[in-house]
Design goal:
It is built from 1 helix and 16 strands. The chain has 256 residues and is mainly beta.
Length: 256
């Protein structure tokens, strides 16, 4: 009995030590670098008649503050666009969605400063499963002549899949994501029935082709699944870097 107890203790201690020693750099990869492709333009598609308009350029009535969903979103709205309020925190939709097609347009400001992950950083969480950055993130940032780890550049499924190519437009120009999302499903006992899948067109160019996600986004450590509702809000990130805040417009969704 003593040997068994000691073995169990050793295994637990070893696992805890491995977790304690994990670093964010462990899951950051710099090669191969996706080739640069110059798009003709972004896709500025108007919402179809059956779409749910999440942002119409007029108000944030469809959004709340992520860390306190009883409070309205406090980002700035002016001139038909909304701009990140970095002190206001992440925002997410009031409604939850399961499988869907999503369109969103975003712009890095022309006066952007900073480098790597500290330059125009934000994120589109395809399913928000809790406060802060809990969920599945499609990276948004300035990746135009701005090297960083490839699974953290714009168009990546953050820390999981680098984009197939780099179709970023220069700062000051509007860009677009068109996303097809299939939420994960779980068995009654909590085990995974089917993983999340996502396809992404970035400025009209395919950058993620029906990839199978390994779990929710993890900044440190490996992703893994834990049972949650299949339907969740869409979340936008107010990243803590010091660069100038980015803007969004024309956000709509078609539930599948």
């Amino acid at each position: 009995m003593k040997k068994i107890a000691y073995s169990i203790f050793a295994l637990v201690a070893s696992a805890n030590m491995a977790t304690a020693q994990a670093k964010h750099e462990d899951t950051e990869f710099y090669t191969p670098v996706p080739p640069v492709v110059t798009p003709t333009s972004a896709n500025f598609a108007a919402p179809p008649k059956d779409a749910v308009v999440l942002f119409d350029g007029k108000s944030l009535n469809n959004w709340v503050t992520t860390n306190d969903t009883t409070k309205p979103a406090t980002w700035d709205v002016s001139g038909g666009v909304m701009t990140v309020n970095k002190t206001g925190g992440n925002i997410q939709t009031k409604q939850s969605f399961q499988d869907y097609q999503l369109h969103i347009e975003w712009k890095i400001p022309s006066n952007i400063t900073g480098t790597s992950q500290g330059r125009g950083n934000s994120g589109l969480f395809l399913a928000s499963i809790g406060k802060g950055d809990a969920g599945y993130e499609l990276q948004i940032m300035d990746s135009y002549n701005n090297p960083t780890y490839v699974n953290g550049q714009a168009g990546s499924v953050y820390k999981q899949y680098a984009p197939l190519v780099n179709p970023n437009l220069p700062p000051g120009q509007w860009q677009s994501y068109d996303v097809a999302w299939k939420a994960p499903r779980f068995n009654e006992d909590g085990s995974l029935l089917s993983p999340a899948r996502v396809t992404v067109f970035f400025n009209g160019i395919l950058v993620q082709n029906n990839v199978e996600l390994k779990g929710p986004t993890q900044y440190v450590g490996q992703p893994s699944y834990k049972k949650h509702n299949p339907a969740n809000p869409i979340k936008l990130q107010a990243h803590g870097d010091k660069s100038e805040p980015i803007s969004f417009r024309n956000i709509w969704i078609r539930p599948a």
